[in-house]
Backbone:
């Protein structure tokens, strides 16, 4: 793709989305970054901010149309906006699960449906969905988050089959823990069950420690750039822990993988 590529990145207020938007701009792309409130968002050099709530149908339609009105096309959509949730499956309320899926899964459906008519008309485009290693390696006490990322994986693969006839491809980026506020400030299920207290505390502490020791978002942002502008591949796992976990999941027997995962969450 050329330097005139028009890129939309959702959730650029901080973390991975912000780092990716900055890198696209440095590549010479015209970059639009979505935020829930422009008034509260810090400016990003080279990035045009668009107020858009990915959880709201009308907001997404209005936001995407405003970009089309200005740029006349969208070449790349990066679905990065997301949230996390810590808690045992049994103690997670359906309302909490619904909110999580609305942000992590239905937001992708909304933005994809908003950009695809334009991509189909131009017979080209790339949709990059940020998933997680938990999309192929579910973790204890992150069951609903893992489920949402499994949904992202399935949606993306199906979408890619459907839209490639129009010159459009969909692809996944699967990061591991990254030093952002997503997991370190992850909300916990509100209706706690005492029987899970000990293990939940261990798992939560393991997540916080992993995030504190994790790399900065730059590595994930680089993977997003390659997924968006490079040769198409179905999935990219950033170098480091994410790449290692992907290989372990594919090539190691299930028993050792299970034991290693439990140990990493402090469950022995």
Residues:
């Amino acid at each position: 793709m050329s330097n005139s590529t028009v890129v939309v990145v959702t959730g650029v207020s901080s973390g991975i989305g912000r780092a990716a938007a900055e890198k696209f701009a440095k590549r010479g792309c015209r970059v639009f970054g979505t935020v829930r409130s422009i008034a509260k968002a810090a400016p990003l050099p080279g990035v045009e901010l668009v107020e858009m709530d990915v959880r709201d149908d009308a907001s997404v339609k209005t936001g995407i149309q405003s970009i089309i009105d200005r740029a006349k096309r969208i070449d790349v959509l990066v679905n990065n906006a997301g949230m996390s949730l810590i808690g045992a499956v049994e103690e997670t309320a359906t309302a909490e699960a619904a909110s999580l899926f609305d942000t992590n899964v239905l937001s992708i459906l909304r933005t994809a449906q908003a950009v695809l008519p334009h991509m189909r008309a131009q017979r080209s485009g790339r949709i990059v969905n940020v998933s997680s290693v938990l999309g192929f390696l579910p973790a204890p006490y992150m069951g609903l988050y893992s489920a949402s990322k499994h949904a992202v994986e399935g949606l993306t693969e199906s979408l890619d089959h459907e839209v490639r006839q129009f010159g459009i491809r969909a692809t996944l980026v699967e990061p591991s823990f990254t030093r952002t506020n997503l997991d370190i400030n992850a909300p916990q299920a509100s209706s706690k069950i005492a029987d899970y207290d000990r293990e939940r505390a261990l798992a939560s502490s393991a997540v916080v420690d992993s995030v504190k020791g994790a790399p900065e978002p730059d590595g994930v942002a680089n993977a997003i750039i390659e997924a968006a502008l490079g040769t198409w591949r179905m999935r990219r796992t950033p170098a480091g822990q994410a790449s290692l976990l992907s290989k372990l999941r594919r090539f190691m027997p299930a028993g050792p993988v299970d034991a290693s995962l439990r140990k990493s969450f402090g469950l022995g």
In short: The chain has nine helices and seven strands. The first helix runs from residue 15 to 26.
